[in-house]
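W.,

You were right to be curious about this one. When I first looked at the sequence I had no strong expectations either way, so I just let the prediction run and decided to look at it fresh. Below is the sequence, 73 residues in total, followed by the output.
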Amino acid sequence: MACSTHCTLPSRSYFEALETAEKRALHSFFDQHVIEDDELGYVALDEGDYNALPAYLTARVVHTVHGGMLDEF
């Protein structure tokens, strides 16, 4: 399938941030978010570092990986 001139492919930083988020999520109670950043491209962010994400960060979330650990013991 060909891509039109309006097609935008994700940058390498997106896949790096996604990989980081997926690895962190395996060992975390918190969701891991891939955030779009104007200067860095994409970065992984641990929700546990911010409690509830501020609105300016929530608006930049492009993907979420749910934390893989359960707190039900």
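Here's what jumped out at me. The longest helix spans residues 12-26. And, maybe more interesting for your project: The chain is about 25% helix and 25% strand.

Coffee later to discuss?

I.
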